[in-house]
Specification:
The complex is a heterodimer of chains A (231) and B (559). Helix content of chain A is 59%, strand content 4%. Chain A has 231 residues and is mainly α. The longest helix of chain A has 31 residues, at 126-156. The relative contact order of chain A is 0.17. In chain B, helix 10 (410-421) runs antiparallel to helix 11 (428-440) and helix 11 packs across helix 15. Chain B has helices at 2-47, 136-141, 149-169, 179-191, 258-261, 270-275, 283-303, 313-324, 388-403, 410-421, 428-440, 461-464, 510-513, 521-524, 534-554, and strands at residues 56-58, 72-78, 84-90, 97-103, 109-116, 195-196, 208-213, 217-224, 231-238, 243-250, 332-334, 344-350, 355-360, 363-365, 368-370, 373-377, 382-384, 406-408, 441-447, 452-458, 477-483, 489-496. Helices cover 36% and strands 23% of the residues of chain B. In chain B, the strands form 5 sheets. In chain B, strands 1-2-3-4-5 form a 5-stranded antiparallel sheet, with helices on both faces. Chain B has a 5-stranded antiparallel sheet with strand order 6-7-8-9-10, with helices on both faces. A 5-stranded antiparallel sheet of chain B has the order 11-12-13-16-17, sandwiched between helices. Chain B is elongated and about 100 Å long. Chain B is of the alpha+beta class and 559 residues long. Classes of the chains: A mainly alpha (231), B alpha+beta (559). Chains A and B meet through helix 4 of A and helix 1 of B.
Chain lengths: 231, 559
Amino acid sequence: MRKDSNLQVLTKGILKENPVLVLILGTCPTLATTQTVDGAVGMGLAALAVLVCSNIFISLLRNIIPDTMRIPCYIVIIAGFVTIVKMFVQAYIPTLFESLGVYLDLITVNCIILGRAEMFAGKNPVVKSALDGIGMGVGFTIALAAMAIIREVFGNATFAGTPITFLEPYKISFLTKAPGGLLVYGLLIALVCVITKGKAPLKKSFSCAGCPNAASCHTACTGNEKGVEQA
Amino acid sequence: MMVKNIKSVGVLVAICAVVALLLALTNQITAPIIKDNEARKAAAALKEVLPDGALFEEMDLKDYKGKLPGTVTKVYEETAGEGYVIELTTKGFNPDMVIMCGVTPAGIVKGAKCTKAGETLGYEKTYGANFKDKDAAGVEAVDTVGGATMTTAAYKQAIKDAINTVLILGGAEVDLRSEEEKAVDKMKEDLGATEEADLSQYALPESVTKAFVGDKGYVIYLTVSGYQPGMEIVCGVGTDNKIVGAVCLKSNETNGKEKEYGNSFVGKDAAGVDAVDTIAGSTMTTTGYKGAMKDALNTALVLGGEDVDIRTPEQILQDNLSAALPAGEGKFSKLFLTEVLKGVDAVYAADNGAGFVAVSVAEEIGEEFTGEFIGIDANMNIVTAGSTMNTEAALTAVQTIKASSATDITADLAAKMDALLADTALDRNLLLTYRGIKGNVTSVNKTATGNYVFEIKGAGYGINGGDQYHPASGEYIVIRVSITADGKIIDCLTVSQKESENIGDVCAKEEFSSRFDGKTEADIAGVDGIAGATLTTKGYKDALLRCFVAVQILEGGAE
């Protein structure tokens, strides 16, 4: 398996493997919290904090957590950190707490967090896992911020709640609604495709020997494996 | 394998323990800050109604249990002595209207806001602004809003309760009784009516709930239905059996007329009560109120030892029918008359086929008008006789009814209408009338004696009305009417209707349909309609007028 350098691990989450615009993960909070810039950035930073902390913790425990128990353990760790972040936000940034509402708790089941825990932190050392968390978190925040800027500025003629008076007559209210959100999301995905020249992240192949479920998989046991390609 | 499983579970438990520890530490740090934030947020909401306040503490009201108005749910004391914010829950048009009111220790309202309601017209959102900087007298002077009386009256009372609460907390003696309660207590005092009567030993009207007996009279509590059920009225009756006072303690009526209507009955006896007019636009409220006054007078007579017939007219009718034909077992149905019966007003058949009861035409005997109930069994034997004349008339009436037959001439009428409608030069009014007859007469029969029996649809509120509060049912009123060949109604019956509940559906009652008995076409316009049900009345009358025109057509003369 090709090993990325620390810099590559840190930066791939920002554009090349952006979790929202390339991997298409975490769509629910993306659409729900990008009506305002401050809400989007707050959500992104909260997810970043959870991602980094959970990646570090899971990476530290990767050789201790048994395969059969890894998902429950990951969930407990992620949920714990989400609750900690939630308590800090509720205490120190109550306005952000009010605006994020239930979506703060829903970070627990955000695909990005569990996905990175499973795909990276569970198999890599602590430093790389932390860098991966930072990279993915920053990429998530940038994607959310970009969407929020478009939706709030052009849809509501405000920026982080501050009115932009010259845009008021031209605002497109549709952008602040769900269909408008999906449209902006789709257009941003298309833009990223153009920027990255449509190249999907490198495919990797590995045999059943590298698969954590090999022991219980019928295909592995019978030797009828094919080379499995993984994006 | 077992060891492996135990190790797995052990790891999970250990991780849970570590996470729990971290959460506990975080809670230790953040809990006081979160609590402080919540207090500030609550204070911000309270400051909206008491702007000069800074910090508030919720008071423990257990020392004031039973001493504060019933609407008070919470009291917040401003810690610097600026006043109080009182949370009240009251009932407007809908239940659970929650109001926050800020009041200074001197009893001046600094702000009022409705935090939870769903009133139909939404006045609770803005009405609170009227009370800013008002004292008790100023609050009293604020008008309620017409059309939203229940909402705004309840709101106003809640503000008064808030002021009273602050005064009580300040140690003042406050009379929490409403004006109505004070009036009732004064009535009791004036009449010496302090002892509650045991009503179980008396046969009293159903509306009476309790009564107090005194040396100068009685105070009687009644619950009746007006436009809405549950109108609680207290009536004071003197030993001369005249009303000394009447107060509505509680009601759900929408127009508020029941508040002052009781004054119309002061000094009145039974005849005087009958003479008091109902109020147009609040007919059901005032009719219910009047009924309560009559019940109160009858109750006073019963409590005074007099023999009073407290039965309703329906009960009296059923008792008379049962007395005339005991074999009928108390179940009788009024027969729809298709023949003119001399000397007989109505004929009832026993549901079990035991016979008939004919009610003779009422005649004046002394000061009373009364008819006789003559029972006839299935074999035409007299069971209960009346005077010779009435008994003969009753026998003839029942024989006429039994011998009556009719032929369906619906097709004849339809053919005649088609012929008339074929005339392209018809006058517009005639055209509409003929179309109305063709479209709405569902059947017509002609009796052997030449009378006509129509079944016709009338377009009342169910077809022509409808609004957001009383949607139209989409159904016609179906009327059965018998008319003589020379154009006089013999009998009229409402077969079915889906008019507005408690308003237009009065057309289903015999009391309404019998108003048309004996009437000619010219008389119809003068028949009393149903108050508040103009469309129902018009639809009913138009249907009957069409029947008169149809009779003329069938008799060979077009309109």
